[in-house]
Amino acid sequence: MAEIKKDRRDFIKFSTLGILGVALGGGIIISPYALEAQMKLRPPGAVSEKEFLALCIKCGQCLQVCPYHSIKLADMAKGHGVGTPYIDALERGCYACTAVPCVLACPSGALDHSCEKPEDIKMGIAVLEFPNKCIAITNTPVPKGHSKKIHDFTNSQRNVTQLEKDMLEKLDGFEGKQCTICADMCPIPNPLSAISMIGSGNGKKPEVYEGCIGCGVCEELCPANEPAIVVKPRLTYEDYYVKGIKA
Length: 247
Description:
- By secondary structure, the chain is α+β, with helices and mostly antiparallel strands.
- The chain folds into two domains: 2-120, no CATH class; 124-242, no CATH class.
- The chain has helices spanning 2-26, 32-37, 49-55, 61-65, 101-105, 148-155, 162-172, 181-184, 217-221, 237-242, and strands at residues 71-73, 85-87, 124-127, 195-198, 205-208, 230-233.
- The strands form three sheets. It has a two-stranded antiparallel ribbon.
- The chain is globular, with a radius of gyration of 20 Å.
- It starts with a helix and ends in a 5-residue tail after the last helix.
- One of its GO terms (molecular function) is iron-sulfur cluster binding.
- This is 4Fe-4S ferredoxin.
């Protein structure tokens, strides 16, 4: 009798997990609060989160064509939308490719094909969330080995591209200098429309402008122990800097 009760408990436990998995994977039965709490940085051209979850067929085409290995597919540990593409800026931001190949590869409309060039991308907004960690403000030179994490991630990929090699070479050139990485490594065609370093002499700091597309490169490449500048997914410049929406 005890064994039967144990089997019944296990059945209920794993059946519930299975149903939850189906709900998460299919993007259904998700409360608005869960969506807000689990908001991810989506690839360029992503439609609204609710619509994105409904349209994405989890084919992985966007991941396969990304030359920077920026796109990952969500698993159960990443909350709702299992199998859907997202970008973890702590590992690799989006480098705003000229032709936006991830959008071109999307067959379902989850990535809107009206996003045709870097300036059309609206993924989120960069924020100097932790100014006390910013080494530019303290005028601390970019330390030796600052790019090791970026090199390690790149070298872990099966097919490292020339674009990635060029990015790493440029990044390595900041070693020992006053930090301007977030501004000078911004990948959009007109980076000064998105971010610049303000202040004269010692203690410069990044300032974000309306042209920021929320690509996450500044967060990825920040040489502080933990990124001083981070991206708020799905928010616009107006949302954060004008209306004061922080979530």
